[in-house]
Amino acid sequence: MSTPDSVRAWAGVLRLHSQVLPLLDREVTAQGGLPLSWYDVLLELASAGGRLRMSELGKRVVLSRTRVSRIVDELAAAGLVQREANPDDGRSSFAVLTPEGRARQRAAAPVYLRGIEQELGRRLSPGSQRALADLLEEALDAG
Amino acid sequence: MSTPDSVRAWAGVLRLHSQVLPLLDREVTAQGGLPLSWYDVLLELASAGGRLRMSELGKRVVLSRTRVSRIVDELAAAGLVQREANPDDGRSSFAVLTPEGRARQRAAAPVYLRGIEQELGRRLSPGSQRALADLLEEALDAG
DNA sequence: ACGAATTACGTGCGTCCGCACACAGTAGGA
DNA sequence: TCCTACTGTGTGCGGACGCACGTAATTCGT
After folding, report:
1. pTM value?
2. CA B62 to each of CA A11, A47, A143, B39: distance values in angstroms, whole numbers, following the listed order
3. Which residue on chain B is closest to A142 by alpha carbon?
4. Is the four-CA dihedral A143, B3, B9, B13 of positive or negative sign?
């Protein structure tokens, strides 16, 4: 009774996620970084030019739209983003990166990059990392 | 500014996890299956011969030891497992699969397997599935 | 043999999270 | 111009989750 490859793959995703995520979280918060959810939102905002509608942000980020709404509240309270009305559509609103938000994101980036690099570099050869990344992106594009 | 492969890989794990897990959850519960956490515990118990110490169970399952303790409570209340003292060590206790628990696990298995097969089969070729599984297991073994 | 350190486990508590719902705004047909 | 369907958003609520701690049992050094 051998396990199908798809099941082995899914089990691998589940396990790697549950093993690496807490380590990364600890390491980053120990170094005074931002919470992962904050960083994720700031990063996505930054790479989108600093301004995004809520629903768009919800799609790009790993969190639910609902959750994003609350995190943007927190970020706004911390002065890292600013809510802004959409003149073309009264329902929607933008999250806009403030200069300080951009600065904080830039400052936090190396901590995350180093953590990931370290945690995955320890486990896989460069070639395997590349192969894994390609396969995962292939799967995501087919989503 | 190209993203390192390790970061691409980690982002892929994060995204695939967040996309597939809810789908799988919905699909399974819609078909009257067990909660994923229940299934995970039952499966791990079954493949270990039906009896495992709590801490061992915590290590094998994707959940924290703390969480496992509570889930075993729920499973025991549902009659699917039974708590049992360890005669050789008064601190530890066993979770033992009941016949009904074993039956429920067996009955639920095809639902999960089909769901995973479907969700990953749609996204990756058989060869890619195998390659992905191998890479993830390689990473986990190095953990 | 006895106390300190360690291990296995359960639980109180606070956080994170998303579903279901409510509400305001928009689009489109008659 | 209404009236209806739909869309984008925020929020109440309850569940899932794990950390920190407490407790009981075992191990180990002396």
Report:
1. 0.91
2. 9, 32, 24, 11
3. B123
4. negative
